[in-house]
Write a structure and sequence with these properties.
alpha/beta; seven-stranded mixed beta sheet; six-stranded mixed beta sheet; 12 helices; 13 strands; 35% helix
Length: 399
């Protein structure tokens, strides 16, 4: 029979590895994670499924683009996160973030880490936080960094330092399998780019290329398309050919590519103007091809609306085509247009409203002499608005 001290020695390599991982996580993000989370949000039925029944409360959040403070404002506005502790307060709500966490800001990694911890918190509370791929996640996995900022490169440079320090610590333990070095094969110099950015670029390639540590840990849990109740969530948009290809198949193939299982370049439906993460047919301006949108939605059983990010809506969250297309990218990040936080809420699968901090609605309330009242479900043609004034109130709005 093995003595307790012998068991400790046997377990020591595993304990050391877990300690090093926690040390690196905290050094990069300031957050700790359970080593064996239960339930694991990336393996839960909700995270793996393409089609999910409508929850009683569903929240959709637009592009975040590397801005942690503004992202916390949006999550707090939605009642999902305590802004001081950054812990989940949404109970059993389901939230969808429609992609573009990366680029344009300096908090990209901290945002990825935060969203991951919120997934853990939400799963324990009976809710879910589900994340989608945006075009910027796909670009970064492909090594296209033209929207990375100096602050973002510096953040990855720091990650690279701590990650390689962790690898060096693990190599000191002879009983641990030699860890894979994600920097292997990554160029050390980039002619034509200032040398001060080289280490940040190296770390970004190592972290985000298919099966890189950050891609495998955080991006592989993303979906590309989600159908929740009557709502289809996608970063750019869907065309008939995408639905013909199969939504489940798209999610599976992209996940395999992100984890390095099928090699090569990104699937064709992720690239070009008609890619599911690039399409602007239903999000750019008011002159949309509504009949085409209706045809696409008709191919997806039960689908009534498409919810998209990708294209900044300077007027805030809005709808076209009789609320069949809802556009939720408000340019939140200071690296974009520094838009005021807004999120979309769908209650019981049918009642839509915007949660907003936009002061333009204060003036609307002052100028409009009609008595404001809640919008009944049977009357709801467009979107209702929730306005934080002296107290939150819901008003009718023409989107």
């Amino acid at each position: 029979m093995m003595a307790a001290s012998d068991q400790v020695c046997v377990d020591l390599p595993i304990l050391l590895s877990s300690f090093v991982d926690a040390f690196v996580d905290f050094s990069v993000s300031g957050l700790f994670f359970p080593t064996n989370p239960f339930p694991n949000p990336n393996l839960s039925a909700a995270a793996a499924a393409t089609r999910i029944p409508a929850p009683s409360r569903l929240v959709a959040i637009g592009d975040l683009h590397g801005d942690l403070p503004k992202s916390l404002q949006a999550l707090s506005l939605a009642g999902l996160v305590d802004p001081f502790s950054a812990r989940w307060t949404g109970r059993d709500a389901v939230a969808v973030q429609v992609g573009d966490v990366l680029d344009r800001g300096g908090d990209e990694l901290r945002l990825l880490y935060l969203l991951h911890r919120l997934k853990l918190d939400a799963a324990r509370a009976g809710g879910a936080l589900l994340t989608l791929h945006g075009n910027h996640e796909i670009m970064n996995a492909c090594g296209h960094f033209r929207y990375a900022t100096p602050a973002g490169l510096d953040e990855f440079k720091r990650w690279g330092f701590w990650y390689r320090s962790g690898l060096a610590m693990k190599r000191l333990c002879a009983d641990l399998d030699s860890p894979r070095d994600p920097f292997k094969g990554v160029p050390k110099s980039f002619p034509g780019i200032k040398e001060e950015f080289w280490e940040g670029i190296r770390a970004r390639i190592a972290a985000l290329r298919p099966n890189g540590p950050i891609a495998a840990r955080f991006l592989a849990g993303n979906q590309t398309v989600l159908v929740i109740g009557e709502s289809v969530f996608v970063h750019g948009g869907l065309l008939q050919k995408h639905v013909d290809h199969g939504l489940e198949k798209i999610n599976e193939e992209v996940r395999e590519w992100i984890t390095g299982l099928n090699g090569g370049q990104a699937p064709a439906y992720l690239r070009g103007r008609e890619g599911v993460v690039w399409l602007r047919n239903f999000s750019d301006g008011s002159d949309c091809d509504c009949s085409h949108l209706e045809e696409v939605l008709a191919m997806i059983p039960g689908a009534r609306r498409m919810v998209m990010g990708h294209t900044i809506q300077e007027q805030g969250i809005n709808e076209v085509c009789g609320a069949r297309a809802i556009r939720i990218d408000v340019g939140l990040s200071r690296g974009c247009s520094n838009g005021l936080p807004e999120v979309l809420e769908i209650s019981d699968g049918v009642k839509l409203r915007i949660l907003t901090s936009n002061p333009v609605y204060y003036e609307r309330l002052k100028q409009d002499k009609r008595p404001w009242r809640p919008v009944a479900e049977e009357e709801l043609e467009g979107l209702g608005i929730l306005v934080p004034e002296t107290r939150p109130q819901e008003v009718e709005a023409k989107a």
